[in-house]
UniProtKB/TrEMBL annotation:
Keyword set includes Membrane: yes
InterPro entries linked to this entry: DUF6049, TonB_box_CS
Organism: Streptomyces hyaluromycini
Coiled-coil ranges from the UniProt annotation: none
Protein's name in the database: DUF6049 family protein
Upper taxonomic lineage: Bacteria, Bacillati, Actinomycetota, Actinomycetes, Kitasatosporales
Acidic residues composition bias: residue spans: 724-736
Regions of compositional bias (Basic and acidic residues) in chain numbering: 768-784
Keywords of this entry: Membrane, Signal, Transmembrane, Transmembrane helix
Length: 811
């Protein structure tokens, strides 16, 4: 009770007498009770948990002259004994001179050991005869502000307490209290703070890399969560409804716009086992975009890079992976196009926003690498070291043409707690307004202050933010300003411009970053995409959805969800692998070649919807000395296959020797990169050699000569028979015994008939001719050059010399 002297106002004489009397009567029992308590226990510690006071609303949040303050809330008896003669009082505390004092007071808002303040008293109380155990009672008290004895402008402590008696302590005492802050600016301030409040419209990743095979490429969503967020009552729907009436700078992730825009048409929801179901929230999506277009008309819109990439993760873990920074540039380039297309406004893309405004030199370097020249930092990262007695303006030149826009940490973090309960929300609003007014009273210099809240406020947090912004816009000490104007404001010469070192980066944030392995997987997926798009006749059908999916893999929204991020990256790469495998070579079984030359077909299959081109099919022989392809060890042919078709590519081959040869078929892109898996198969060469053909030809010639011989023999025999038939008539003219007549041998019957067998005797002309023909053929075969593919003879060539040991000879 002696602590009341620390507060403004003096209790009435009657109340002072009652307090003294109560203290005298209570002295002896209290002393006896203290003898039984632990020495360290404070006198009123038991009462701190007896009754809880919830301050559900305070209106107006920042009153001015002539206003009436209405305070409402709930008191709850948490003890096992009833509270009698209970009454709710309003209490005015002292004027808080600094922002640090506000912080300290907020940490002890329900502490009975701290200053209780002065009761407003009079009729501005609410009484309860009895407050039973576990019972909660609502209260509402209205008081004109001129009854609060407010003095100079500034921030005052303001409390609501419940006093009463218990069966154990039969005297009037404060059993519970809840303190807050009452900002008091009775009239327009001579110098107003220019305040910029960022209103973020950002969500998590919803769209996969998959699209339907049709002409419209129906997108596939991971789930239906986005529909819940944009439906009436959903988080984003409330953000939109609240923000349209506020003078704020909209900070939008273009991925959210693209995702909602995709929902306005046919879309599907991914299910278990690869199944999908049709999405049904087209009307909700159309209404959300229509309302958003109206809300941002004539308002400043700042577009983040597509999918809000995690700049700190990229700076700390991604820059060492080739190509990672190119994704940030791509995400920045597509941001403007997306916002223009969906919202029909031109956004500002000059700002980069690292997580929680935490910066170090590497983050600044990455953040500005894609064209942004302004980085939204926060004052708990870029801390003041110059000993300023006031909060400086947000803009700070940090070198290289880059401006750090330093958001105020206290104001930016004011609504990060659980604000689902009305009392928590009210306390957050009052503390925010108190900090804002305390900042304004620090100096007569006009300053530009930026508030950058959490990226994805909950619905309750957004409602508290909107309440605070509305009160701030109606206040006497603040005026609204766009972010671009804040960035251009004249910097305070004493404000720090030194970027903290990498070691100063918060470890709690570093633990949530995407690891290096994530960027390595992203790079691998990009390499596959680059190789794949070369062969497509309509590359936009693949490059666009996969390019945006890769941007989503780097999203800041994955912080705290490492396993989900890993699963998403794996699904993107797997789906790309599936598409790549739709263009492939058909497996071949063993191929047999008969003859020195033949054609080998290889089939390319394209199961994609679109055609493929700019492919080269190479067929390679592993034994070119035995089997040549196109006159070389390998041969290439261009390939173009329509969607859903197959094409056979034929290769000319020449065999030089018999045997089995392994052949490899491999697809390549026109720039020489392998495409897909190779197909290997065996070619069995069964070549017919020139020597064999000569032998066959010789045999045919012998058959012809034999037929001719038989024909001539029969003709001669017929002539002899004709002579014999004419013999008796001529015999009568010649006398057998006449001198000089030669002896004529008589042919045998067999000989005259022409049926006698041929012999090798010199007297047989036909046999002699046959032997000459065979010798001619033999000489021809001997003189014929040996072919490379001729098999090794089973025997050595004939020779009149004696046989060597082990040598095989013809017999």
């Amino acid at each position: 009770m002696a602590e009341a002297a620390d507060f403004q106002g003096t209790p009435s004489p009657a109340r002072r007498w009652l307090r003294r009397t109560g203290a005298l009567f209570a002295g002896a029992p209290l002393l006896a009770g203290l003898m039984q308590l632990p020495a360290a226990a404070p006198a009123q510690a038991a009462g701190s948990d007896t009754v809880s006071v919830a301050l559900d609303s305070l209106s107006p949040s920042a009153p001015s002259d002539g206003d009436t303050l209405t305070v409402s809330g709930t008191v709850t008896n948490n003890a096992k004994q009833a509270v009698t003669d209970a009454h709710v009082d309003l209490r005015m505390g002292s004027l808080l001179g600094t922002r640090s004092e506000i912080d300290t007071a907020a940490r002890h808002s329900d502490d009975l050991q701290s200053s209780l303040g002065t009761e407003v008293g009079g009729k501005y109380t609410e009484d309860f005869d009895s407050l039973g155990p576990g019972v909660a009672e609502h209260f509402s008290i209205s008081v004109p502000v001129d009854k609060l004895d407010l003095g100079q402008d500034g921030v005052y402590q303001f409390g609501v307490s419940l006093s009463g008696k218990t069966s154990a302590q039969q005297w009037d005492q404060v059993l519970g209290i809840q303190r807050t802050f009452l900002p008091w600016q009775s009239s327009e301030a001579d110098t107003k703070t220019k305040t910029t409040y960022l209103w973020p419209l950002i969500s998590t990743v919803h769209v996969t890399a998959k699209t339907g095979a049709g002409e419209l490429q129906t997108p596939v969503f991971q789930n239906d969560d986005l529909a819940k967020e944009i439906s009436p009552g959903g988080r984003l729907a409330q953000m939109l409804a609240l923000g349209k009436d506020l003078d704020v700078t909209w900070v939008i992730d273009p991925d959210l716009l693209a995702s909602v825009d995709a929902m306005t048409r046919s879309y599907r929801i991914q299910g278990a086992g690869g199944t999908t179901t049709a999405g049904t929230h087209q009307a909700v999506a159309k209404q959300f975009l229509a309302d958003l277009q109206d809300a941002v008309t004539d308002k400043e819109v700042v577009a983040l890079p597509f999918a809000d990439p995690d700049l700190a993760s990229l700076a700390h873990n991604g820059t060492s992976v080739t190509g990672s920074l190119s994704h940030l540039k791509d995400a920045t380039d597509v941001a403007t196009t997306t916002v223009k297309t969906v919202l029909h406004v031109t956004p500002n893309t000059d700002f980069a926003w690292p997580v929680n405004g935490a910066v170090d030199p590497s983050i600044i370097k990455v953040a500005t690498s894609a064209g942004a020249d302004k980085v939204i930092a926060r004052s708990d990262s870029l801390q003041e070291t110059g000993g300023l007695t006031y909060t400086p303006s947000a803009a700070r030149p940090i070198g290289g043409g880059t401006t750090a826009v330093v958001a105020d940490a206290r104001l930016s973090t004011a609504f990060e707690g659980d604000l689902t309960q009305a009392d928590s929300s009210t306390l957050a609003v009052q503390q925010f307004l108190a900090q804002s007014l305390a900042l304004n009273t620090q100096t007569d210099k006009q300053r530009s202050i930026v508030v950058a809240p959490q990226r994805m406020p909950s619905a309750s947090q957004a409602q508290a933010m909107a309440t605070a912004i509305t009160a701030l816009q109606d206040s006497n000490w603040s005026q609204s300003q766009d972010l671009a104007a804040a960035a251009k404001a004249k910097p305070d010469p004493g404000a720090t411009t030194k970027i903290p070192s990498s070691s100063a980066y918060p470890s709690s944030l570093r633990k949530q970053e995407l690891p290096r392995t994530a960027f390595e997987q992203i790079a691998r997926t990009q390499d596959k995409l680059d190789n794949f798009q070369v062969i497509l006749t309509d590359e936009s059908r693949v490059v666009t959805p996969f390019g945006r999916a890769i941007n989503r893999e780097m999203s800041t929204s994955w912080r705290g969800s490492g396993s989900e991020a890993d699963s998403f990256r794996t699904s993107v790469e797997s789906w790309l692998d599936d598409l790549i495998s739709q263009v492939q070579l058909i497996d071949k079984s063993e191929t047999k070649l008969s003859g020195r030359s033949a054609t080998i077909p290889v089939t390319v299959q394209n199961n994609l919807v679109q055609g493929v081109d700019h492919l080269v099919l190479r067929l390679t022989s592993t034994m070119p000395t035995r089997l040549e392809i196109g006159g070389n060890p390998y041969y290439e042919q261009p390939v173009a296959v329509s969607g859903g078709h197959s094409q056979s590519v034929k290769f000319s081959t020449s065999a030089n020797a018999n045997g089995r040869v392994e052949v490899t078929a491999q697809l390549y892109t026109v720039d020489g990169q392998k495409y897909g898996a190779p197909v290997k198969f065996d070619v069995k060469v069964t070549e017919v050699t020139p020597t064999v053909m000569l032998v066959i030809g010789g045999g045919v010639l012998l058959l012809v000569l034999a037929g001719f011989r038989m024909y001539t023999q029969r003709k001669r025999a017929a002539a002899r028979r004709a002579e014999e038939d004419d013999g008796p008539d001529e015999a009568g003219e010649d006398t057998p015994d006449a001198p000089g007549a030669p002896e004529t041998p008589v042919a045998s019957e067999a000989e005259s008939s022409g049926d006698t067998e041929d012999t090798d005797g010199p007297g047989n002309p036909a046999a002699h001719g046959d032997r000459l023909q065979e010798e001619s053929v033999a000489r021809s075969r001997a003189d014929d050059p040996e072919q490379p593919s001729d098999p090794t003879p089973d025997t050595a060539p004939e020779s009149a010399d004696p046989s060597e040991t082990g040598e095989r000879v013809d017999r």
